[in-house]
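Handout for the seminar on molecular recognition.
Each group receives one record of this type.
Step one: identify the two inputs.
Step two: read the structure output and locate the region that could contact flavin mononucleotide.
Step three: write two sentences on what you found, then compare them with the reference statements printed after the record.
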Amino acid sequence: MLGNQLKIEAKPIDQPLTEPVDRLYLGGGIYNLNVDEHLKDYARNLDPTKVKEVFLFGTSGSVFTVGKQLTKILDKKHIKVSDDHLYLHGIMPKMGNINAHQKEEVAGFAKETVTE
Ligand SMILES: Cc1cc2nc3c(=O)[nH]c(=O)nc-3n(C[C@H](O)[C@H](O)[C@H](O)COP(=O)(O)O)c2cc1C
């Protein structure tokens, strides 16, 4: 959904970045209070010379976000993390229960971040 709004193809994290990017949109869900280990590994393995700025996004059932854990990893690597992020709560996207307001938030986030 976010990829559509940004008019870019969303790629799974098992595909490493091949070319330098100005903006990397990185995100995922929260599982058992944690960011998925594969997502953390992806962040740990990012090449700081290839990424100018990371925009974080994520979904969770409750109030948790991927922000704290991923920002810690990216800070250590001196990769800039934008203050602008998108965290949606109370949803199970695979079940399609994202609401109209949340869809607007996705669209707003995409619009804001491309014009920054
Ligand atoms: C196995 C499992 C464990 C989860 N654990 C948590 C959790 O500890 N805290 C939370 O807020 N959400 C939790 N969730 C909810 C997910 O973070 C949320 O549904 C997320 O949007 C799922 O994204 P996905 O459908 O792309 O996997 C869990 C979901 C699953 C399937």
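Reference statements: The longest strand covers residues 21-31. The two ends are 20 Å apart (CA to CA).
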